[in-house]
Amino acid sequence: MNAPSSPGFLHRAGKAVIWAGASLVLLGVLVFFAGPPIARSLLTDLLSEQLHRPVSLGPIAINPFLMTVKVADVSVGDKAGGNLGETAGFDELFVDLDIASLYYRAPVIKQFRLVGPRVHLVREAPGRYNISDLLDEWLKPSDTPPAKFSVSNIAISNGMLRFDDRPPGKQHVVADLDLTLPFVSNLPRQAEIHTEPRLSAKINGAPLSLEGKSKPFADSHESELNLDLASVDIAQYLAYSPTALPFTVGSGRLDTELKIRFRTDAQKKPSLAILGWADIHDLRIAEPAGQPLLSLGKLHVPLEVLEPLANHYAIGKIDVDGLEAHARVDGNGALNWLEVVGGMPRGAAAPPPPEQQRQGSPVAWSMAGLQLSGSSVHWLDESNGKPLKASITAIEAGVGKIDARLAEPRWQASRPRDSRWNSPGLPTAASPYPGHPH
């Protein structure tokens, strides 16, 4: 019997290594040449079935040695009975996979490049689009846990979005869309980043450009993208909601000064943070039939840091000024606010089972406080034949710091001397007790 170190054993082991290497090379060559036509045929059938629309694919190139995939000239047609030549498509998609995908059992992409994406969106009626069948299917509640992934060095170039708003007969075009992002990841992995955040486009001919700023250091890479908005018409954009809302927005303006911060370093996994503030002014919300529901003069929300990939959300002290809430009980005894809450669109996914929640990072949130000033509540009860009206005005209230542990929140409420409890048939007077009607 030969010892493991004998020439015969080494000769047999060498032959085994050579055969294994040759087999891998042969397999790679087969995938290189035979993989693309097979993948093209399978993907065409699978995508056509899943999207309920005809799909065509151009050339596919697979390099198993470099772990890269390139797909060109993809086009998705219209649904049955539609009159669009194309719903979506792109010129080229290039994906560079990392071998770490095998370790994480999840897609780890070193580079993602999409060239010439095209989307033709049609609003056929309020709340209904040419892709509503897909949205209804994708947004169904599911108990499937969120997928793990890591995508780095994302680049989308020369994009085009055509929006045909048929109810008012308007068309909008977003052209020359370029977007680059350093990463989007929920895996604890350090990636080599060579992409800076950037967004540019032409919206109906008007240029838009958001440039990121880099802060490179020896062992880390940090970049920021500023998102500053001024007087955005909330009502105009909510009209394009893909799902019907149980209320209408008559007016409202949004202002923001936000920073989207991307950071990677050698010790921690990639982090995505949002900081800054958002304001809403002159908001007016009504029931579908037109009765007032809620209005406010100003809502100020400071964002200390939001880290969605780490389930960490820290909000500063929220200020609410000039809030007016209208509660109404109709002739059938139904409360308007319960009708609104019941009519809100449901979430895309159900909460994961407890054992899956324990495996992931728990949600950590905190709020520095909330201050309510110059506010009022109006009550209308129409359920007993004769309408009963009541109002509490000039409300001042506050909540101290509160977090996910609900540890020692500080509450305070008061109404100034000139506040009133008004109800027909009852005395009108200032409350002698802060926060309570007389």
Features:
globular, alpha+beta, 438 residues, 22-stranded mixed β-sheet, 48% strand
Give the ordered list of helices and strands: HEEEEHEEEHEEEEEHEEEEEHHEEEEE
Shape: globular
The percentage helix is: 10-25%
What's the number of extended β-strand segments?
22
Total domain units: 2
> Looking at the chains present, what oligomeric state does this protein adopt?
single chain
Strand % is over 45%
> Rounded to an integer, what's the Rg over CA atoms?
29 Å
State the separation between the terminal residues, measured CA to CA.
103 Å
Mean of residue pLDDT?
A: 81
What does this entry show, briefly?
17% of the residues lie in helices and 48% in strands. The protein is α+β, with helices and mostly antiparallel strands and 438 residues long.
Descriptive notes:
By secondary structure, the protein is of the alpha+beta class. It folds into 2 domains: 29-216, no CATH class; 220-438, no CATH class. The protein is 17% helix and 48% strand. It has helices spanning 7-51, 100-104, 132-138, 234-238, 336-343, 354-359, and strands at residues 55-56, 60-63, 68-76, 88-97, 108-115, 118-125, 128-129, 150-165, 170-185, 198-203, 206-216, 220-233, 248-265, 271-286, 292-307, 312-321, 324-329, 364-381, 388-399, 402-403, 411-414, 421-422. It has a 22-stranded mixed sheet that branches. It is globular and about 100 Å long. The model is unreliable at 348-352 and 426-438 (pLDDT under 50).
